[in-house]
Specification:
Layout (H helix, E strand, L loop, with lengths): L2 H8 L4 H8 L4 E6 L5 H15 L4 E6 L2 H15 L5 E3 L4 E3 L5 E6 L16 E4 L7 H8 L15 E6 L6 H9 L12 E6 L5 H6 L1 H8 L3 H7 L17 H4 L11 E8 L4 E8 L6 E9 L4 H12 L7 E3 L14 H7 L5 E3 L4 H13 L9 E3 L4 H6 L22 H11 L10 H14 L1 H13 L1
Parallel strand pairs: 1-7, 1-8, 2-5, 2-6, 6-7, 9-12, 11-14, 12-13
Antiparallel strand pairs: 3-4, 4-5, 9-10, 10-11
Helix pairs in contact: 11-12, 13-15, 16-17
Amino acid sequence: MNATEKLLSSLHPFPPQEAFFKATAPRVAYGGARGGGKSFAMRAKLVLLALAHPGIQILLLRRTFPELRENHINPLRRILYGTAEWKESTKEFLFPGGSRIKLGYLADEGDVLQYQGQSYEVIGMEEATQFTESQYYALTESNRLHGLLRGSFIPRMYFTCNPGGVGHAWVKRLFVDRDYREGEKAEDYVFIPSTVYDNEYLMREDPAYVKTLESLPPLRRRAMLQGDWDAFEGQFFPEFDRARHEIQPFSIPENWVRFGALDYGLDMTACLWMAYPPDRSRLVVYRELYEPDLVLSRAAQRIRESGEGEALRYIAASPDLAGRRQEGGKSGFDILTSHGIKGLCPAENARIPGWRRLREFLRADCREGGPFLGIFPQCRNLLRTLPRLMFDPRVAEDAALTPHEFTHAPDALRYGISSLPFLPGEEKEESLRVRDLKREFFGGDFGKERYMGFMKK
């Protein structure tokens, strides 16, 4: 039995694995949760490519060599024995038709330099979230055709991944959020999710492992069992759950209080439109503006255009905009106001108290049982960046200031939350007075005594 026959006879793929084997897009990621058969799928995919395309050059990477040896070198040596020659000195499998699978690791940032100038039609990054974004981009430069396959094969990269790790953000951006930059095309990226419940073999042969995943602490269980990319260790807002806080849009009633929140910088203008009903029973974020490289006058124009002429009670804005600027002695507020933005007021900028208030809004439920704070789907950048905030390693209870791109929309939300005169569950001041009067005259023993005494007179 040759290597192809041995491999095919061992393949009993469940549906996500089968989809991964058939995928031919330039970038394909597989996994999202523990127990989804990621390592097996990666090994099988690369061997099938080596057998199907004589001369193909393949690079398979993990973060450390011990992981590489246990997860790939040893299993591949068993399955390829007698078909592909293992070269210990160069850590590669050589196939009779000229195909090659080279195995490597990137323990440190600079390790990627060893692959500069080399060409691989296929690169596999096992546990991709353990690699940095700069390592990923450096490897893309080596993902190109080798001479033997020129014109007959599209270079590809394959990834397996779980939420969390140093590369969480770039993997999530490309394959989960599908948020693409200039030069990136949506059709080039495919994500195939898989969980332990898809793995029929593991469910049957190792139910104890399934129980272990089901018994993890709630946040880690969401990431490792369900493959939830908005839940990972180090997340600043574990209270945020996109499935819960992203709500279906609806027409904001006329009697709701509408206000805005603005975080401005030359690198990014983030403006949120928010509203709550007269009884303060919930809060919604229903619109956003999120654009880079806007001078203040242009930012004002874009806010007016995005607001569709809607009147806001006020806009809580970055407090530094109220300070004087050198250009003509005008403040940022002066410039914005002169270009048609009304109701600007300096936001409360105490970071830690602001984050604490925001946590209260994320945790709370409204009377109907849904989230007190709801976010419309069109606020895609708020939904994208809020779960990406990490803890500041130097300041307890504060969010990290880097990566800076993730801070703009959450800062605007913090400004808006801090501007509110209430917390979830608090009634309006007028309602509290009425409630106290009712309690005094109609409720409790004291109230009943007062009321009955009055009636007897």
